[in-house]
Amino acid sequence: MIPGSFEYFSPRSLADAVKYLADHRDDVKILSGGQSLLPLMKMRLSKPAYVVDIGRIPGLAAISELDDSLIVGALVTHEQIESSELLKAKCPLMPQTATTIADVQVRNRGTIGGSIAHADPAGDWPAAVIALDAEIRVFGPSGERWVKCDDFFLGLLMSVLEPDEIVTGIKFPVTGGDKTAYQKAAPRSSGFAVTGVAVRLGMDSTGTCTRAAIGITGVADKAYRPERTEQMLTGKKLDATTIEQAAAESTRNIEVIEDINGSSEYRAHLTHVYVARAIQEALNR
Ligand SMILES: Cc1cc2nc3c(=O)[nH]c(=O)nc-3n(C[C@H](O)[C@H](O)[C@H](O)COP(=O)(O)OP(=O)(O)OC[C@H]3O[C@@H](n4cnc5c(N)ncnc54)[C@H](O)[C@@H]3O)c2cc1C
User: Which CATH number is 99's domain given?
Assistant: First the structure.
């Protein structure tokens, strides 16, 4: 399990990293936590001739608050998110999601930027960022741009990122009084979602849902937003029947995958159950 040979570059600035990426754009990979890239390189499923380790670029490993938004730097690890007091107070969906990722070794090394950029269809962060209506900050040869999470993921391990662009951070709102939850069904061996559901509900004082946002992972070739389910919850009192009916629509128009973890029928059923559970858990908080 030894990777092929490659040239290693460890820049100290984003500009140097992007220049190196642009110079080698056909055969280069960014290294963050290495928890997805290194296994692929060791199995020779990925054989980049050039590797840019962005771990020493300053300013990418902080969690900060700006007005009503929170910004998590791309190099922030799953563990930092899990233990952040700021996020526990201002956006508990993030720490809750982090606790479900893999094991402590992976959480200590793996980063949110790497996970988002990798666009694994069973990764947990894509579901959470969709439920939070997050924006992804990207830096490339033309400077900085922000991409809405709904536009970011294109398919299996594919995103809108160009080979010479770097994810530098993720911005999402303080969730305040909104009710949130993350529910995931996953085999113990990997922790990767067979279905993973992130929910954010705005509720008014009469118990009516004013806004529903849901992200689902593990079910299709990319994480997605079940728009029909969101619509069926919005403007309603969330009794058991409403929740069940809305959850049953959560795989509508989705090509549900099948693999060693289950058939597409099983996965769709599991998703309906987990959407209902996640809504109920959020309401109970
Ligand atoms: C045993 C095991 C179990 C796991 N279980 C889970 C799980 O339950 N849930 C889950 O969500 N994940 C899981 N993972 C994946 C883990 O969360 C990784 O941390 C994550 O997928 C990638 O983050 P990374 O920082 O390690 O990225 P890397 O492995 O360094 O990079 C991954 C890919 O993204 C690119 N990349 C990295 N950073 C950037 C950036 N800032 N900008 C642009 N491109 C970039 C790389 O070039 C590479 O193609 C597991 C991994 C392992 C090894």
Answer: 3.30.465.10
Same domain, 144 and 183: no
Give distance in angstroms: CA of 140 to centre of ligand 1: 20
CATH number (domain holding residue 47) = 3.30.43.10
Distance between Cα 132 and ligand 1 center (Å): 20
Q: What would the pLDDT profile of 116-148 be if each residue is shown by its tens digit?
A: 999 999 999 999 999 999 999 999 999 999 999
Question: 127 near 200, Cβ under 8 Å?
Answer: no
Query: Which residue type is seen at 146?
Result: W
Question: Given ligand 1 and candidates 32, 53, 111, which is best to mutate, with the most ligand atoms within 8 Å of its CB?
Answer: 32
Furthest C-alpha separation in the chain? 62
Q: Evaluate the CA torsion angle 36, 39, 41, 46 in order and state its sign.
A: negative
Domain count across the chain: 3
Cβ density class 251-267: b for 16+ within 10 Å, e for less: beebebbeeebbebeeb
Per-residue pLDDT of 176-230, as tens digits, reads 899 999 999 999 888 899 999 999 999 999 999 999 999 999 999 999 999 999 9
Q: Which residues pair with 170 in a beta bridge?
A: 72, 136
Same domain, 88 and 185: no
| E strands in 90-208 | 135-140, 143-148, 153-155, 158-159, 166-173, 179-185, 195-203
Cα(33) to centroid(ligand 1), Å: 7
SS3 at position 118: helix
Expressed as residue numbers, the domain containing 223 is: 179-284
What is the atom index within ligand 1 of the atom nearest the CA of 120?
21
Q: Tell me the whole-structure pTM to 2 decimals.
A: 0.97
Cα–Cα dist 196/97, whole Å: 10
